[in-house]
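In the design runs reported in the main text, the only information available to the sequence generator was the tokenized backbone. The following block is the verbatim input for one such run; it is reproduced so that readers can re-run the procedure and compare outputs position by position.
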């Protein structure tokens, strides 16, 4: 009886327009001033606000989102989680993020639907296999779980995949990170929003930033379509629009913005038990809890702020995917979307204060942003609160493009994910 009552209760509330449900967070009105303002309303932004409040006691802060929270890249990604990057600096931040992911649902008291189902990165030739084996050893030196499988072991771990050698890119092996997996993007956004709001953070939606004011080389406030807000600290966490916001204070960032596409199939019964990624084939795939196959590829070649992308990318990724999973040919595409990714020359992010006092940047994550969400927010909050980077954030300062101390992660970043 309880099960039937719950169903009809949900149905009744839906027909009433959720009149009996309390909001998960306060939809705040902007105040005249704050101790800090965060521009953006995605996962990294909300994580930054949450850790500023929890770790540093900064609650007189605001999140300014031009639309609705989670309506940008946070709602347009494919939620793959892994930390098997090559260099020590990357291993530190992505490893930190994965540890936070493992306990985040309990910490926020919110089901983020974290599924540690394992991530395979495929090798299709001897050179790629050598590079992946090198990454495995580097991962192990940094205490990151990683192992190399031959083709037979890949098939045992992922029965749906084809290991036929009579194709353009035969599978000869793969790395496996068993702790990797996927989660639910909107649940993560809502969990962080609820927790931050409960600690006093103002989440201001439909508030577009139109300008940033500065005096004597230091920020003084933000102009928005809802009025001027005075603040001594501004944190930009706007993904594909990082360069746009930075130009408001006269900064030019070493960032390019590209469309990034993904699509889902019609839902089917469970058929894919892990995440499969291929750099050479340039496609990746997982299966959602609703049964849809979540499919993606690399960024579009051209620069753009559109949320679409070219049809040639979709055609290529589907053709490539069908080599790995011939049985998927019978499925129909249900919907397609695009996000905007900001890419740095070394395929690593910027987590940095700038030459304008009080202006901080967190961006340039390229295709690897979602997996870093809690680690990024935790490290960035520390920087904003203390005006100095901690050991995790320091290697990603903007000065590295002058000193040449780059963190070149093109290989480990692999395809869009």
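Verbatim output:
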């Amino acid at each position: 009886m309880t099960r039937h009552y719950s169903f009809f209760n949900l149905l009744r509330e839906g027909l009433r327009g959720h009149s009996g449900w309390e909001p998960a967070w306060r939809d705040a009105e902007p105040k005249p001033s704050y101790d800090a303002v965060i521009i953006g309303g995605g996962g990294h932004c909300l994580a930054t606000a949450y850790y500023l409040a929890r770790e540093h006691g900064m609650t007189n802060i605001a999140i300014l989102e031009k639309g609705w929270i989670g309506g940008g890249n946070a709602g347009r990604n494919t939620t793959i989680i892994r930390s098997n990057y090559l260099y020590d600096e990357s291993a530190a931040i992505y490893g930190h993020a994965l540890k936070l992911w493992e306990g985040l649902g309990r910490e926020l008291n919110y089901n983020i639907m974290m599924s540690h189902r394992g991530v395979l990165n495929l090798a299709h030739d001897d050179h790629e296999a050598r590079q992946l084996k090198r990454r495995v050893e580097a991962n192990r030196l940094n205490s990151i779980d990683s192992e190399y499988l031959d083709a037979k072991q890949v098939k045992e771990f992922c029965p749906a995949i084809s290991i036929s050698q009579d194709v353009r890119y035969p599978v000869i092996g793969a790395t496996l990170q068993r702790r990797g997996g996927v989660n639910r993007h909107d649940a993560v956004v809502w969990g962080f929003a609820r927790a931050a709001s409960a600690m006093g953070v103002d989440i201001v939606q439909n508030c577009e930033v139109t300008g940033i004011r500065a005096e004597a080389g230091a920020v003084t406030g933000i102009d928005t379509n809802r009025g001027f807000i005075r603040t001594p600290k501004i944190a930009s966490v706007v993904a594909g629009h990082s360069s746009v916001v930075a130009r408001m204070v006269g900064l030019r960032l070493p960032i390019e913005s590209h469309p990034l596409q993904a699509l889902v199939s019609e839902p089917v019964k469970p058929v894919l038990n892990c995440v499969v990624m291929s750099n050479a084939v340039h496609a990746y795939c997982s299966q959602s809890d609703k049964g849809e196959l979540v499919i993606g590829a690399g960024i579009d070649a051209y620069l753009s702020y559109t949320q679409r992308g070219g049809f040639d990318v979709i055609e290529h990724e589907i053709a490539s995917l069908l080599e790995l999973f011939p049985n998927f040919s019978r499925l129909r595409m249900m919907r397609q979307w695009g996000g905007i990714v900001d890419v740095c020359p070394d395929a690593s992010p910027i987590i940095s204060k700038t030459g304008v006092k009080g202006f901080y940047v967190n961006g340039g994550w390229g295709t690897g942003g979602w997996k870093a969400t809690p680690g990024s927010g935790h490290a960035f909050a520390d920087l904003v609160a203390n005006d100095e980077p901690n050991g995790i954030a320091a290697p990603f300062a903007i000065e590295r493009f002058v000193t040449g101390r780059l963190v070149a992660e093109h290989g480990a970043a692999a395809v869009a994910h």
